[in-house]
């Protein structure tokens, strides 16, 4: 599915292959398709509906307005296709490491295994440094080996495993691994 280019084509920051921006209304169809894919969402409670995707995009816009960062919309620069999201969140759930800035990602299957997530995550850490953020956390279900590999690739260090309180009703997802990097 082709992504329509934004009218301004203005990115907050770029890598050699990726452009990072805030969310636009025209992102909904592509991002909803990514979020509806059971394989992409296998480490989440369930695939997202179109409405849940819109709510996530709206939350990210508010987070960007409040904190200057969010899980950004990420385009492949060559084609202007939306590949998914990579960025910085703000976590406040009950844990001994929260509240904290976290880094996370979700990209469509078409773009897996091309180094795009690691490239984008590294750019987000650089952006976090520019914002004066001193440390960033990331966590994933212990069986999400691809995400854990990205954490290691971008220089994050293992802290410990924990039971994620918001996944108490999902025993197969509840055990998570926590990584951290000082900036």
Along the chain, the helix and strand elements come as EEHHEEEHEHEHE
Q: What class would the helix/strand composition place it in?
A: alpha+beta
User: How many DSSP helices?
Assistant: 5
Roughly what is the average pLDDT, rounded to an integer? 94
CATH topology: Aminopeptidase
The CATH architecture term is 3-Layer(aba) Sandwich
Low-confidence stretches: 1-8
**Beta-strand proportion:** 25-35%
Query: In the CATH hierarchy, what is the superfamily?
Result: Gcn5-related N-acetyltransferase (GNAT)
Gross morphology is globular
* Percentage of residues assigned to helices: 25-40%
Report on the biggest sheet: 5 strands, antiparallel
N/C terminus separation:
37 Å
Structure characterization notes:
The strands form 2 sheets. A 5-stranded antiparallel sheet has the order 1-2-3-4-5, with helices on both faces. Strands 6-8-7 form a 3-stranded antiparallel sheet. The chain has one domain: 3-Layer(aba) Sandwich (Aminopeptidase). The chain has 5 helices and 8 strands, in the order E-E-H-H-E-E-E-H-E-H-E-H-E. The protein has helices at 28-36, 50-67, 116-130, 145-153, 171-174, and strands spanning 13-14, 18-21, 71-76, 81-91, 100-107, 135-141, 157-163, 175-182. Helix 1 packs across helix 2. It has 183 residues and is of the alpha+beta class. Residues 1-8 have low confidence and may be disordered. Pfam families: Acetyltransf_3. This is RimJ/RimL family protein N-acetyltransferase. One of its GO terms (molecular function) is acyltransferase activity, transferring groups other than amino-acyl groups. Keywords: Transferase.
């Amino acid at each position: 599915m082709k992504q329509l280019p934004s009218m301004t084509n203005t990115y907050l920051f770029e890598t050699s292959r990726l452009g990072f921006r805030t969310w636009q209304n025209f992102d909904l169809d592509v991002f909803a398709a990514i979020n509806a894919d059971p394989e992409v969402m296998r480490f989440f409670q369930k695939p997202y509906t179109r409405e849940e995707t819109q709510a996530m995009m709206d939350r990210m816009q508010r987070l960007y307005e409040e904190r200057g960062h969010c899980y950004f919309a990420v385009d492949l620069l060559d084609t202007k296709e939306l590949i998914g999201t990579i960025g910085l969140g703000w976590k406040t759930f009950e844990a001994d490491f929260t509240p904290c800035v976290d880094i996370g990602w979700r990209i469509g299957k078409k773009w897996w295994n091309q180094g795009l997530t690691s490239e984008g995550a590294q750019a987000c850490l650089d952006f976090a440094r520019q914002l004066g953020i001193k440390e960033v956390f990331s966590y994933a279900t212990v069986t999400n080996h691809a995400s854990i590999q990205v954490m290691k690739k971008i220089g994050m260090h293992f802290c410990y495993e924990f039971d994620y309180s918001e996944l108490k009703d999902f025993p197969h997802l509840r055990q998570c691994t926590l990584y951290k990097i000082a900036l």
